[in-house]
Amino acid sequence: MSTLLIKNALVLATMDDNNQEISDGGLLIRDGFIESVGKTSDLPTEADEILDLSGHVVLPGLINTHHHFYQTLTRAIPGAQNSNLFNWLKTLYPIWGRMTPEDIYISTQTAMAELALSGCTTASDHLYLFPNGSKLDDEIEGARQVGLRFHASRGSMSLGESKGGLPPDSVVDTEEHILEDCVRVVEKYHDPKPGSMLQIVFAPCSPFSVSTELMRESAKLARHYGVHLHTHLAETEDEEAFTLEKFGLRPVDYMASVDWLGNDVWFAHSVHVSPEDIQVYKKYGCGVAHCPSSNMRLGSGFAPLMEYLREGIHVGLGVDGSASNDGSHMLAEVRQALLMARLRAGLMGASLSGENAPKLITAREVLEIATRGGAAVLGRKDIGSLEPGKCGDFIAVNMNRLRYTGSLTDPLSALVFCNPGWVDFNYVQGKAIVKNGELMTVNVPDLVQRHNKAAAGLVKK
Predict the structure, then answer these.
(1) Are residues 14 and 140 in the same domain?
(2) What is the pLDDT of residues 126-160, one digit of tens each?
(3) Using CA atoms in the order 244, 174, 378, 414, what is the torsion angle rounded to 10 degrees?
(4) Which domain holds residue 102?
(5) pTM score over 0.90
(6) Residue 207 carries which DSSP code?
């Protein structure tokens, strides 16, 4: 049995039901699970590994609920820099169609390395195209080496241009093969137990890239195996126009028609929703992956974050694709979520005084979205807070740095309001992924070289 003792934290933010913030706090982790939480003076003094985190803020690992790892290969592509979603996709589909299994593997490690260094301990990725023999297995193997907890979405596209969809026919797959492969990966990899490092998600890409039949069959299959469902929804006004023209329904109504409502479903973006749509999410327990940077980058709009929170809807954060965010920085996404929500409130009249002015979201609220919220969206009860029985997933940031000077009256909020950097420590299931600001599991300089070579080759082709 192995033990890890964390002691002397400047502040330990548990994110538990009581929102405990413990000065001079610590944790005892045994065999990957938290055994006790409290003041350092109340914890044991001996352990196999002792980590003195004096001057550090400690909090649960951040949870990324939406990403496309492979898009790290196409960051800042000139032809896609100034486009909205549909035009951006049309520019990049042909490039992504050239990817190889090695490209998937390398891009997974790059995205996960960046996530780990920025405070993420659990990541969900949405891989929805499999060119040139690529498989979800390529991503799973790349993720295993980095060491983050992983929810791997077996995505899909079956509705090519010839059938009225958005993607070119060259990057779509047959529905028979998609469903067969979903069965293969869930039976081979899915682990539903507490502390699971790998779970499978079924994730048809979007209403404009898969058929109604595939949506329905994916839902049936997911419920047979007890796994979650994920897709893009209500991201842009173009999408709403597409579903109205093709199905005669707005996006959320279309989800109802294909049995895609429930607490086992979460949607990426959900920007263009009506008050009635929000009530549907509330009624059925649907979750939302909020992706503020991507929504701004592509000019998609403002998700109604505060409305979701007021209605008790589960919301997590997602950095989204690294070609629509151009980064995989979780702490930066937390800050972006705060700023975007406040800007939206300002546009709705928060600059006015009085009781009717919209409430401004707080730093602690966005940190809760990034931790407990993400856990709820993914259907995980074993992560998201620092409590006895939960997984030993935590991050720590040294506050004795230039970017945090002058902020130590409230160091937890400083993580959000001040300029974000890398975390100093990142532990998953009690194992060090980042230590003293260095990634422990992958050689970063070598990865950068291999990734740049792969990206250059992809664009050159």
Answers:
(1) no
(2) 999 999 999 999 999 999 999 999 999 999 999 99
(3) -80
(4) 62-378
(5) yes
(6) T
